[in-house]
């Protein structure tokens, strides 16, 4: 009977996975729903609605908005060589062209600032900051006032209302079979009812909450600004449990791939190690030590990129260094094994070395 229940749970889970792929929001509610939280930090809803209003309702602010977007793209460039090339393009298109036609609507101070830096081939990310300030000052006038009276601004207010008032319960998810066990206990696959997206849910009994120092770490790392950590999407509670909804990774973990396909090549390990290091640095910059780095905790997403998972043993060392001997034997640093010895983020770098050796040599 238990075997039959397991088979039925597997079938239900696989059907939910297929449904999430074929119908992104099957039978979804027609209410306003936000994009996935992983995309929200990268989307400026207000700006996009304001831009749409300008392009479709009036023509006054469109050239300035295009100029603004070009500057913002320029500010994202990492290399000085790229910034030098792009800054010259922006100058020729939006500044020099208007100066020659005597129609440049910006101050001489802004022009001089850019020209002086370009003459010296100095291209800091803030090169066009005077223009950003003048564009914003210009758009704050009549154009923005009209926007606030439009249906676009009403839509923006609706988005913000939804974003700030998301109250979830278990009824918002279809929970399927157990897919693993993490630092908080059993992990289940689940499907969000309104979007059809597959997630995983980790439950923590409230009576154990006081002993779980990693809760603070999950909250601290929950802003989703690192693509190499499995971060929390939603959180809610029932009378006896805390529930954390996390992204579901479909690419397996490095332990699985090691056991199925053998050791990794140096080229593969350079790629994975780079992304793992970026994830660890993100934690360490926020004074969080991971403490359980091993192949089984490194998941791959559908595109093959790394996600560090299971923060059940993570610890905040901003105020006090931990000294507990926790982790997985074979990957624990000497200072972690030595009871009573305080340690910090250095413990993770030792574990990283052990893990890379395991993946390269087996």
TrEMBL record:
GO biological process: desensitization of G protein-coupled receptor signaling pathway; G protein-coupled receptor signaling pathway
MF terms (GO), sorted A to Z: ATP binding; G protein-coupled receptor binding; G protein-coupled receptor kinase activity
Domain of life the protein comes from: Eukaryota
Protein name: G protein-coupled receptor kinase 3
Domain Protein kinase: 173-362
Domain RGS: from-to ranges: 46-157
Keywords for the protein's UniProt record, in alphabetical order: ATP-binding, Kinase, Nucleotide-binding, Serine/threonine-protein kinase, Transferase
């Amino acid at each position: 009977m238990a075997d039959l229940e397991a088979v039925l749970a597997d079938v239900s889970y696989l059907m939910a996975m297929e449904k999430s792929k074929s119908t992104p929001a099957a039978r979804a509610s027609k209410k306003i729903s936000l994009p996935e939280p992983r995309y929200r930090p990268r989307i400026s809803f207000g700006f996009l609605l304001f831009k749409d209003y300008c392009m479709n309702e009036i023509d006054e602010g469109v050239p300035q908005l295009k100029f603004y977007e070009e500057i913002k793209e320029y500010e994202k460039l990492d290399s000085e060589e790229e910034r030098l090339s792009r800054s010259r393009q922006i100058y020729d298109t939006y500044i020099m062209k208007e100066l020659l036609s005597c129609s440049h609507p910006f101050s001489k101070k802004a022009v001089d600032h850019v020209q002086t830096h370009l003459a010296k081939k100095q291209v800091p990310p803030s090169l066009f900051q005077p223009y950003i300030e003048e564009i914003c000052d210009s758009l704050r006038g009549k154009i923005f006032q009209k926007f606030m009276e439009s249906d676009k601004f009403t839509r923006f207010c609706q988005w913000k209302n939804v974003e700030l008032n998301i109250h979830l319960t278990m009824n918002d998810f279809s929970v399927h079979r157990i897919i693993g066990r993490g630092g908080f206990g059993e992990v289940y696959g689940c499907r969000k009812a309104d979007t059809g997206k597959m997630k995983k849910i980790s439950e923590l009994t409230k009576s154990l909450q006081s002993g779980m120092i990693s809760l603070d770490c999950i909250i601290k790392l929950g802003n989703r600004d690192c693509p190499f950590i499995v971060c929390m999407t939603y959180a809610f509670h029932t009378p006896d449990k805390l529930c954390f909804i996390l992204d579901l990774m479909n690419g397996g973990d490095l332990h699985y791939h090691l056991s199925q396909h053998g050791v990794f090549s140096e080229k593969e390990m350079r790629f994975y190690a780079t992304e793992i290091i970026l994830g660890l640095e993100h934690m360490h910059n926020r004074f969080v030590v991971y403490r359980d780095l091993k192949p089984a905790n490194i998941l791959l997403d559908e595109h093959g990129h790394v996600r560090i998972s299971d923060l059940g043993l993570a610890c905040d060392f901003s105020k006090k260094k931990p000294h507990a001997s926790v982790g997985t034997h074979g990957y624990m640093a000497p200072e972690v094994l030595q009871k009573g010895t305080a340690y910090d983020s250095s413990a993770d770098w030792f574990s990283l070395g052990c893990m890379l050796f395991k993946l390269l040599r087996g």
